[in-house]
Amino acid sequence: MGFFDKLKKQVAGESPAQMVQEYRNLPVETLCHKLNDSKNPTQVEILSNIIKNKAEDMADDELKKIFDKVYLVTNPDVYGCFMPEMQKRNLIFKDAEGKTHKNY
Description:
Elements: H1 3-12, H2 16-23, H3 28-37, H4 41-57, H5 60-71, H6 76-80, H7 83-88, E1 92-94, E2 100-102
Antiparallel strand pairs: 1-2
Helix pairs in contact: 2-4, 3-4
């Protein structure tokens, strides 16, 4: 997709259903990068939900690998998508000061 195609899509406005359909089959890494770069609140919400759903279906090793990749290089919106699932599986924890620590 070229620059002008993207511009047309932004001007025309993409419906949330179209966004979900477009993003659902993308790899998690791609979704994380899109979320990191997104300024559109609707897109942020949709991407966050898709990433959270994909995180629930991941094996622990895959989840740890992706979390390690995005933790240091993205904004909190991105790695925050993984936090609930990581905590549920006891892969991370927060200390008394609120700092996040890996449990692996």
